[in-house]
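Hello forum,

I keep getting stuck at the same step: I have a sequence, I want structure tokens, and every attempt I make locally crashes halfway through. Rather than fight my setup again tonight, could one of you with a working pipeline run this one for me? It's a single chain of 131 residues.
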Amino acid sequence: MITTETIYERQATRLAAIVGAVRAAKRVCPMVAAGLHCRATARYADTGELCACQRFSHLLDHGRAWRCPAGHVIITGEPYDADGSELAALAAFCDAHGLDMIVSGRSTWNPGDTFLIIVRRQDCDKWRCGP
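Reply #2:
Ran it on my machine without issues. Output:
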């Protein structure tokens, strides 16, 4: 019998091969991928600022955190849709924080209906992290 958990684990295994990393117990937050603290925690509640994971939550739908061979956090999102301004805003955030944003059609969540966004450190390439 195939269960939802089995399907989810198969998706995670396929995505791990695409990303070139293993699952990590980290927050799915671009700040964490940049080596900073996620600001969506109670620690930052009184600042009134939204964290990147809150601002870009639509793009980080079905998000997962990964750890590359070098130990850096990579995050993925598999949204159903996005507009150019959302993607441009995330790309600008990534550039300002030393991150790359990769957009791919190789989503495993609901192939054909979602796409894949990978956020990783710009220097991750030299360790062959991700596609």
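The helical segments are 4-19, 30-33, 52-55, 84-96. If your local run keeps crashing, start a new thread with the error log.
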